[in-house]
Amino acid sequence: MKKYIVLAALLAAACGGPVRKNVPAYLDPAKPVEERVEDALSRMSPEEKVAMLHAQSKFSSAGVPRLGIPEIWCTDGPHGIRPEVLWDEWDQAGWTNDSCTAFPALSCLAATWDREMASLFGRSIGEEARYREKDVLLGPGVNICRTPLNGRNFEYMGEDPYLAGAMVVPYVQGVQENGVAACVKHFAVNNQETRRTKTNSIVGDRALYEIYLPAFKAAVCEGGAWAIMGSYNLYNGQFNCHNKRLLCDILKGEWGFDGVVISDWGGCRDDDEAVTNGLDMEYGTWTNGLTGAPSDKYNRYHLADPYLQRLRSGAADEATLDDKARRVLRLIFRTGMNQERPFGSFNSPEHYAAARQIAAAGVVLLKNEDGVLPLQVPAGGKLVVVGENAVKKMIVGGGSSSLKTKYEINPLEALQEAFPEAEVVWERGYVGDTSTSYNRVDTGQDLSEARSPEQLVSDAVAAAEGVDAVIFIGGLNKSAHQDNEGTDRLGLGLPYGQPEVIAALSEVCPRLIVVNISGSPVAMPWADSVPAIVQGWYGGSESGRALVDVLSGAVNPSGRLPFTFPLALEDGPLKTERQYPGILPEGEKWWQEYYEEGIFVGYRWYDTHQIPVQFAFGHGLSYTTFEYGEAKVSRKSLSAGGSMTVTVPVTNTGARDGAEVVQLYIAPPSDWVAIPGSLEDPLSRPAKELKGFEKVYLKAGETREVTFTVTPQELSRFDADEHAWVADKGVYRLLAGASSADIRAEAQVEFR
Ligand code: BGC
Description:
By secondary structure, the protein is of the alpha/beta class.
């Protein structure tokens, strides 16, 4: 083989073929990227530079045809590669070769608490993007789950900045190994869908730096993300796609981001600010992101003709233009003109296996009394499955993350596959969402129903009586006001009368198993009446099989909740309309939303105020049991610049192999912990905060030591006045636990 390559090279050289002399620097892959960027820039006219900065179609922007610099093609993201769309439209183009592997939703990935899974996800989706010749993947999303009602929680990585930050880094790196840019979204403080394009988030610096920015910072500074997407909302009274503080001061200033800021689709709103405030590429203008599809108006974008006019009149300077063009060129050399990038792969068996593995690793066993799970169905036995989510295909719908997949195995099919000797019967129980299409992708299901709600319940009860096992599979779906882009949920409870169905079933079936499929927390007032509860997620192509892997015991559950399941919405930190969903004060143009809870989001709120919850952050059971030994510290005190370790042995004390997620929380001296009414106190601290975690796989009987490193950074709070992280002197408790509410070992360190 080598012989032929050498021969071909010699022939090519002799005929003046591919071996070229005097190639310009920008075309020479051997030259450093920065040299190529400068060379290309020096050859470009202002018109060519501007042409690169705005869309030319729904998902692409022009390159520089005269110089042979290719276009940039973007794709959603973040759970799979979106079907090809028509040039100016959201609707799919109807190709027959663009059905992708659908990976689980990011809330499921976060629930794996496993950096390896994040890396596998990133690599796999990156390969699919690359194969489909996409340069930018619009994802992942790392907005914090501030309220369980946020319609896009399913696309994000939970309520804790440390967890989201730890998971986003390997995802970004995995994607970018393929020469595809990850575009981390939606920057920033974009924590609801209600009036997402009209709401100004008013958040103090402490909460900004401690809660809302760290995952973005990790994606940029540790993950090396090449692109970031500005969000639709406003912060500090300025739209985030051209928000000076967020983009110029923090992202490009403090964090030294050298990549491209991309507007969300339709998020760019102002000619001047688009130029001056850090935006580099503009997409989707005049749409709200979900609807509206103006044809052929791309030259009227803020960063198109209006920008050129500003340049010509002297109202805009060339240095700023060059900075934007430089960033876009850098992106192109990292992606489309990166000759080292692999070719990628699409729909490979490996990708489906990865999707299944990640989805199964994210399933959370919330409750399991009397060993109801794993499922035992004798050969010839009968298993009754109730609930719409046992059959409803969930990959289509929910907004821009909707996909067209080669296949989607639902839980009912997977149960039939896993228990071929048993009779597996389905009853609907309730009617939820009967829609089956999004952007002209249709699942082909017929979900119409003629029976009344009462009839559905009585049919389900009749089927469930006296059988070997009954599983209720319900939850939310991707329709409006569920887990859905563009709308928030209307309440915490399960919709469509599901609590009544569960109540009726639990009367006749004491060993009822409830599976909740959702991307955000739901209320479970019925929890005490059922012995087993499983949190499933939107699991992608292999969702049914992954869920059944856990139900059947083929996979020992190891998922942990990435957000708290409160008992009731009112228990949470958002108490007023000012906080959520915002108010429109007289005379104001935009809705104002006050993040008055500060840093007290999720378990930081519940733990600090000792409010009981249904299931705590980090909670998740296994079919085995784990015991924690004594926590040992490498030193008893720490000072600035120092570091220490805390080590805890963990033993699998059950009969099955399994994985434990060992979580390290740090608690400040108790008199610093906020009491209600003192939230504004800059010194007040949450009862504890996650500062480390490790997922350890342990064979039955095996013990391993888990070690966490602690530096003053992990003890710090962000001091808004000093604009710096500050570690206060005192004795901190280092808590190793199985959830934020289940601390198993404890040590101390003094910071002096
Ligand atoms: C969403 C983004 C998405 C973009 C392109 C917007 O509506 O907010 O997350 O990437 O559309 O589809």
